[in-house]
Amino acid sequence: MSKAEKPLDFEQALERLEELVESLEGGELALEDSLRRFEEGVRLVRLCSERLSSAELRVRTLEEGVDGLAEQPLAVKEDE
Amino acid sequence: MLDVFEPAGESRPLTVSELIARLREMLVVEFAEVAVEGEIGSLYRSGAGHLYFDLKDPDAQLRSVLFRRSAGALAFIPDDGMQVRARGRIDIYPDRGALQLIVETLEPCGEGALRRAFEQMRARLEAEGLFDPAHKKPLPFLPQRIGLVTSTQGAAIHDFLRGLRARFPAVDVLVCHARVQGEGAWREVVRALHLLAAQPDVEVIVMARGGGSIEDLWTFNQEEVVRAVFELETPVVSAIGHEVDVVLTDLVADARAATPTHAAECVVPDASALQRQLRDLDRVLRSRQRALLDLWRQRLQGLRRGLIHPAQRMADARQRLRGARARLLLATRHHRERASARLRELRTRLPSLTQRGHERRVALLANLGGRLDALSPLAVLGRGYSITRRLADGAILKASTQVEPGEGIRVRLAKGGLRATVTERVEE
Fold this sequence. Notes:
B: 428 residues
């Protein structure tokens, strides 16, 4: 199985988003800083949304073959 | 009728020992491995730790023994009336000619026995601390990969995957098949748990099995499975049977799902709720940013107002000055007009008010003036006297000795005066 780039930690992303929103509420920030935070927030919202609506359910099975353990795709019937 | 006691070529009767030995030979080979189910009766625990009991059903009974070595490994405590499944071998004790089952493993079976065994194990493992909440590991918020231990032939896998699709479809599941019921199923479950736990990206493991009798679910009460779950580093969700079914893995697992369908709720967040939360966060983020920008814009406008060119400042001052002057003029004119009006009014009122007093004062004044004239030295001068003063200091001279010849004097007459020099001093 190919190693994908480090996947988004959804929970951390959400926490960071909440933190960003909170910090923007204060109005204490320098303009530059608030713009930076805003952009980071927008980027996180996009990443999270993409993660939510990304791939299909992926199901594989772990089976022991002649070469040891191997993953096989599992055909799961979409019953009813 | 065939005479079985005198078979051809076998004239001599066997000794008891010979017969028992031959029976034993046959039985030991034929029943070297046998499984039998029955109810325990006449249970006796010897001082050495061996268990002796009868295995019986309504019509028959079989003397059985469980030696200490095997008795010590039992997960439950056998008792009279318990339905059990025994595995072992048949043997005959020659000294009593008694047929006996040498039990290797003993398992409870049948609802009642299983329930009692369940309670016994539950109490024992609980006392050992296996169900202590302190040992429970938190489940990941959104696992990279979900391990699933279940039978790929069962319904539970479909229930669980359907639950996932409904709640958070974008996940990755790795299934490891294990028989979840029957002889030796516990070995497959334990193996599957270990295989999945060894996968680094599997962040949570779900054990799933559909509903069934307590006997069907017994694999998940087996101590080996319970201990395997307890020892895993990866958090485990136990999703066995229906809501009412409780198995020991439910108690030892890091989370319990009422059914395989519900297990999805334990291992993934609700995607639609997350979408809503994200939309809210996005909206708040944008509105806060707008508010902040407005704030900055206002600050900028405030600053711009404060930033005035000196020429403008002068023009403003000049403008203010003109205004002030105009106001001042106006005020003065008003004041003057009011004052002169008042004066006019007073002037018209004054004569009538003061006429009498005024005439009296004029008369008095003439009188006083006359009296004053009579006292004035100037009036004496009118009669021909004069006043002489030393020129130097203006001292009035009353004796000739007050001046020296040559000194200047001045003389005041009734009309005008003289300046003169003393030519001579006349004594007396």
